[in-house]
Specification:
The protein is mainly beta. It has two domains: 25-257, YVTN repeat-like/Quinoprotein amine dehydrogenase (Methylamine Dehydrogenase, Chain H); 271-313, no CATH class. The chain has helices at 274-285, 301-313; strands at residues 22-23, 28-32, 36-40, 47-51, 58-64, 67-72, 76-81, 87-92, 97-103, 106-111, 115-120, 126-131, 136-142, 145-150, 154-159, 166-169, 175-180, 184-189, 193-198, 204-209, 216-220, 223-227, 232-236, 243-248, 253-257, 271-272. The strands form seven sheets. Strands 4-3-2-25 form a four-stranded antiparallel sheet, with no helix packed on it. It has a four-stranded antiparallel sheet with strand order 5-6-7-8, with no helix packed on it.
């Protein structure tokens, strides 16, 4: 049952552009068992290429190129090279992290103090902090918007580049993880329910049951992957809610990371195409803070140049 909603629409902005679509990588990574991070083969459920960073329990996990950033219960964020397994650097988080997501070179970290923090992904410099006064267990970025969710059942949303949070509720669902399939906001509750919401309007669409506490949630290869702390990963068909496969990793899973967040994939649908160009121009024409690509607090022509550079470079 849907309890409340907020709505926001952008004005249409027409443009003609001949831009080719490009796919993004579909690797998934899971963390568990004393800080080890494994690559998950999404076809077979096999775990490969483990790396370790020597920290505590991984609470948040994001990819950046061929590096993985792990937010640890010891209060640090570690950068590990996935090819060599070498911990390249680390920095202290401002509080104990509970989840982490990334936009460009900015990390968004939620903490046990009810904060959402912006950090420089390279050196951990604190850019800004927003106090929600509600402990956020999960976070995800989609379409120029950051979403966070709590065990109190509230989901908060704000344009990237600003901290103007609105909220709606997931009735009866303690939010434990979040993801997107490029169209909808996907929410995993620790009670074992997957909630599907329209990401733009915040309207409820459907729920599916799953035998999992949903510590990790990622969409890849056309399916939703749901990780439980019991080590089981359920692969769900989002159209029907059917569990297609169950993989037993043998781990105590604490976090899962999906395809590398990419600034050029502005609408978050997993493709670089004309739709991203249109979505950015819509946001830019409306002076929406999600179009603040350089993060300086102002939407101007410099942001267009930054986006065009990202679009031309594509995604790994």
């Amino acid at each position: 049952m849907f309890c409340a909603q907020t709505r926001k629409t952008l004005a249409a902005f027409a443009v003609v552009a001949g831009l080719a679509a490009a796919g993004l990588a579909e690797d998934l990574y899971v963390a568990g068992n004393s800080g080890q991070i494994w690559r998950l083969d999404t076809d077979t459920g096999t775990l490969n290429n483990p790396v370790s960073f020597g920290g505590g329990t991984v609470e948040g996990l994001v990819l950046q190129g061929r590096d993985v950033l792990a937010a640890s219960s010891d209060g640090n964020v570690y950068r590990v090279d996935l090819d060599t397994g070498i911990t390249e650097s680390s920095f202290g988080a401002w509080g104990n992290p509970l989840s982490m997501t990334r936009w460009g070179n900015t990390l968004y970290l939620t903490t046990d103090g009810g904060e959402v923090q912006w950090l420089d992904a390279e050196d951990g410099t604190l850019i800004d902090t927003y106090y929600l006064h509600d402990v956020q267990q999960a976070s995800v970025l989609f379409g120029g918007t950051i979403y966070t969710g709590s065990w109190s059942t509230f989901v908060y949303k704000s344009p990237i580049g600003g901290m103007n949070f609105e909220f709606f509720t997931v009735c009866g669902g303690s939010v434990n993880s979040m993801a997107t399939d490029g169209v909808d906001l996907l929410i995993g509750s620790r009670e074992g329910t997957i909630y599907v919401f329209d990401a733009t309007l915040g309207t409820y669409k459907v729920t599916y049951p799953v035998a999992s506490d949903c510590v990790g949630l990622e969409y890849a290869d056309g399916s939703l992957f749901i990780a439980g702390s019991d080590g089981l990963i359920h692969r769900m068909n989002l159209s029907t809610g059917e569990i297609e496969r169950v993989y037993d990793t043998g781990l105590t899973i604490t976090a899962m990371a999906g395809p590398d967040a990419c600034a050029a994939d502005f609408n978050g649908d997993g493709e670089i195409s004309t739709l991203d160009f249109l979505a950015f121009l819509n946001a830019w024409a409306a002076m929406d803070s999600s179009a603040d690509m350089d993060g300086n607090g102002t939407v101007n022509t410099q942001d267009v140049l930054v986006f065009l550079n990202a679009f031309t470079a594509g995604c790994e």
